[in-house]
Specification:
6 helices, about 180 residues
């Protein structure tokens, strides 16, 4: 029993890391704006909170849906994770020149919401699977907040050459978990 519990937590940590890669990539770009440390703390907190709220909503909806569709829920969750992973990998190769939002007020909320959308979909899949809600949302929130802070601080030093590789890594991890649900 303890072994499967530890395996589940490790799986959630990897998923949280994969989802946090998007926030990390965006943070690298934001960090190049030479933000003050107080602003960096606030941006990380906002992204962490959104990475708690969005998967929580997804898990609740996923549990509701799984009650209605039964065993099909695990397959649907696997397909959903696989689809999100593939989308992240494809988006890594699409280079568009988006204007970076200012991480204040509405801009901060828009950034936090945007980078946490993937966690809503993953939460939906995990809700269908029957994952433990508290462990998932705490793990997703803390990891994304830490990756955001690291990205913002590194962004002050690095000039954005890591972005595409982070999204590919995150997408690959989600694809792996999706395939594991489908095959395993």
């Amino acid at each position: 029993m303890t072994g499967s519990y530890i395996e589940e937590i490790i799986s959630f940590l990897f998923m949280a890391f994969a989802l946090g890669m998007d926030a990390f990539s965006v943070s690298l770009g934001l960090g190049m704006q030479k933000l003050r440390l107080k602003r960096i703390a606030l941006v990380g907190l906002a992204i962490g909170i959104f990475h708690i709220m969005m998967p929580f909503i997804g898990i609740i909806l996923g549990k509701f849906i799984s009650g209605a569709i039964g065993n099909f829920a695990v397959l649907a969750g696997g397909v959903l994770l696989l689809g999100i992973g593939i989308q992240m990998i494809i988006n890594a190769f699409i280079h568009d020149s988006k204007q970076m939002l200012d991480p204040k007020g509405f801009g901060l909320l828009a950034i936090a919401f945007t980078v946490s959308l993937d966690s809503f979909s993953v939460g939906l899949g995990l809700g269908m699977y029957g994952a433990k809600t508290a462990i998932v949302i705490i793990t997703f929130g803390v990891i994304s907040m830490l990756l955001t802070w690291i990205g913002l601080l590194l962004g002050r030093k690095v000039h954005g050459f890591l972005g595409i590789y982070n999204e590919i890594l995150g997408g690959s991890i989600l694809c792996g978990f999706g395939l594991n649900l489908l095959i395993g």
